Amino acid sequence: xxxxxxxxxxxxxxxxxxxxxxxxxxxxxxxxxxxxxxxxxxxxxxxxxxxxxxxxxxxxxxxxxxxxxxxxxxxxxxxxxxxxxxxxxxxxxxxxxxxxxxxxxxxxxxxxxxxxxxxxxxxxxxxxxxxxxxxxxxxxxxxxxxxxxxxxxxxxxxxxxxxxxxxxxxxxxxxxxxxxxxxxxxxxxxxxxxxxxxxxxxxxxxxxxxxxxxxxxxxxxxxxxxxxxxxxxxxxxxxxxxxxxxxxxxxxxxxxxxxxxxxxxxxxxxxxxxxxxxxxxxxxxxxxxxx
Length: 291
Prior knowledge:
CATH superfamily of the largest domain: serine acetyltransferase, domain 1
Strand order of the largest sheet: 1-4-7-10-13
Distance between the termini: 66 Å
Structural class: alpha/beta
Order of helices and strands: HHHHHHHHEEEEEEEEEEEEEE
Number of domains: 2
């Protein structure tokens, strides 16, 4: 095929796809400037990691070595870009779907500032998570190693940040953040899950923690664990209902175990062995192993 024929073929294909865009389906959105930018949200997430762990994540762009000046520049960057993304995305929340652009922009600024104010609270929780990882893993040589190398702490950090945005009623952005962590670590924690302090994920690959899961303090889970729904056949009719289990304090769940259902409670100080399948509540101080 010569160049002229290729150009004609490309023109015809373009026309066909443009025509397909006019089908008025959910995916037929052409106004890209009024949609959230996934790349920008991931960039914000990376910068938040640098705010949470100063000295561990570097940016070659910043040449100022004064900590306060550096942090101030970084926070301004995050606020500016987060404001834009939140303003674009608030329309997905029914509370703000009828807001005009000015009202959305003001609300976005309010939410972004409130979120940044919560970072000391997030860091306090993460300090306990790091302690749990160090105390619970004899292979860990230092806290530095855990921050640099452990996928569990990366997934937990991004979850804890995303959870605060989730609590503020910001749609979509928290899920993009935790799915970014999922793609990097193999650990899927929904930002809606409620997780207490001293949370430790060992190894981590293949872990799933569903939206309505409640996890207490001092919980330790291993690779392949699923804290999921008993059934999702009801689809959207199940939205807002408890679908995922409650894991009480000081529970250990070993690899490839599945704990399913919104009425399922794993009592405190229990041990759940590897590869077990649980759909009913377990009393405190239980030891459950596969036959």
